[in-house]
Amino acid sequence: MNTNDSITKGLEEALVFARGQKGRVRVHQVSVPEVDVAEIREETGLPQAQFARSIGVAKGTLLNWEHGRRHPTGPAQVLLALIAKDPDVVQGLLR
Fold first, then answer.
1. Which domain holds residue 72?
2. Rounded to whole angstroms, how far apart are CA atoms 19 and 71?
3. What is the CATH number of the domain that holds 44?
4. Are residues 41 and 25 in the same domain?
5. Which of 9, 35, 44, 90 is most open to solvent, judged by the fewest CB atoms within 10 Å of its CB?
């Protein structure tokens, strides 16, 4: 199977799933823990502006997360969960 065939097969499976039809589709669900953004940032020792830059978000977004007005979702939540486990992970990877 070449790359185009693989992509086409994946798209066909996605359409079957989106239509709610039964098919040979595997659905993966990942559970990401809730995160305390302020606590995670404090563990890194970085000020708000620098931490926000290091994870690619605006400082205002970080402030909203830290004050509970908003909550990180998707990739941001996963990244923050990784940082919670290893506060130096981002700096280590970006060096």
1. 37-94
2. 30
3. 1.10.260.40
4. no
5. 9
> Would you state the structure tokens that stand for residue 6, as one six-digit string?
């693989």
Provide the domain count of the chain: 2
Q: How far from 70 is each of 5, 24, 26, 30, 79, CA to CA, in Å? A: 41, 37, 32, 21, 16
pTM over 0.85: no
Separation CA 58–CA 50 (nearest Å)? 10
Spatial separation of the C-alpha atoms in residues 3 and 90, rounded to whole Å: 32
Distance between first and last Cα of the chain:
38
